[in-house]
Structure of Cell envelope-related transcriptional attenuator domain-containing protein:
Amino acid sequence: MSRAVHTGRPSERTMLTDPVRYPESAPSGIRTRRAFLLLALTLLIPGAAQVVAGDRRLGRRALRVTFTVWLLVITAVVLALVNRQLVVSLLANEVFSLLLIAVLVALAVGWALLFINTLRIIRPPLLDRGMRPAVAATLAVLMIVTSGGLGYGAYLLNVGRNTFGNIFQAGPAFDPVDGRYNFLLMGGDAGEDRLGRRPDSISVVSVDADTGATVTFSIPRDFQNAPFSEDSPLWEVWPDGYNCGNECIINSLYPVVAQNYADLYPESQDPGAEAMMDAASGILGIEVQAYILVDMAGFEQLIDAMGGITINAGGWVPITSEEIPGTSPKRYYPPSAWIEPGIQTLNGYEALWYARSREYATDYARIQRQQCVQAAMIAQLDPATVLTRFQDIAAAGTQIVETDLPRDQLGSFVDLAIKAKNHDVGRLTIGAPDFGDAGDLFSTYPDIPLVHERVQETLEAASGEASAAALGELTVDRAGLVEALPVHASTTLPGQLPAQNVTGEITVDYLHQLAVNQDWTTLESLLADNGECTPA
């Protein structure tokens, strides 16, 4: 009896019945469909093409990696739904983020190699000449989408990793105080005409640790007599508060301490910021735990990186020109441009001027505009904007943001920021209009016990602990105020004389002529509403 001799080659019958693995005898159309099928398998189930038509050992290894990645992705999605804070904390962790970058790069390279191996399995010479370019182009597109996407993700993660490392500090996390996190937010300005950095924009953002309900307390830059608690190092220097007259307005405290009393904060990287935290704590009667300082000189770059911000401006705001020498109070030459009322999309330059312009208006109107710009940035910094402009935003952030927030606590703070989007932001200004009128001396001679009382009432209302009546009494409806304001339009035609028409409309030319005529009283009257603003 004779035995069949096995040569290791597939039989002709096998080759005819298994065209996926043996395409030599298959018709032209089947070879084409086979090529696109193998590419689709490599796209959707990396390793499957090798199992059905190539190196099965390689395919099984790739499938194990594929199924492991799927399991990890599903786990991450579930974890993000049930514990978003933990996911963000892991991504912000230096070691974990570096490991994730390495994994993404390895997966990108491995996926690319699988596509190249799939092309070998397809065997392009067996395809019709007209189909070879189509298969090659499809392969190239799929490699860019898959391996390129993973590689770009690793790049963005590395950018974020470096950004977090440059901005945030290494240090222990801190707990909320009375159920809230309190952050000092400052807009610093170190112009050529100034000695040291002065924070002109000073706010304390208080966030409920559970709900994300947020209140912003604005402190005017000319606030005087800021008190310090007995456990503050500055109690030794100013036991009766920062009360040396007009020279001791609160925004001067930063450079004074940084230059003369830095030794009182020996472990701090920024003694000036620490001093401002102590002053804000004394004014508000709450413990301010961390600071965020934004360099206003770089503010313009950050807004541009976001693609601009959209606001509903309540009144005309001048983009101021140079100061007129010898004027007291300070006066300026006619503005170079104006930001008009109504819905406006501002670029970085315009947003910076909108936030800092003070000509023909009070500091309190300026504070309202700064609050509005901050709220607009928060509202419009959505995931789509972050993903599409991440590199520019990260680059701007490293240049203009300084903070002592611990990196390991980013997860909880991002989670709070997401929760905060579900709440209206409560606001209280420690001065006019919430304490007295713009013309009184509250900022010079503040009633600190009254401030502490109002601060606590506002926090309770924002957290839902007060009655609905109290909440209605304490909350200022900025949107309602803006809607009630008249909307002006600039409708001056070429050659038309600067004038205010019979309908009461205000034009750019009319305002410019008032500035040329130095009619400050009329200008201040017409621009009295330029602090009313809401994010659009």
Summary: Residues 132-167 form the longest helix (36 residues). The two ends are 92 Å apart (CA to CA).
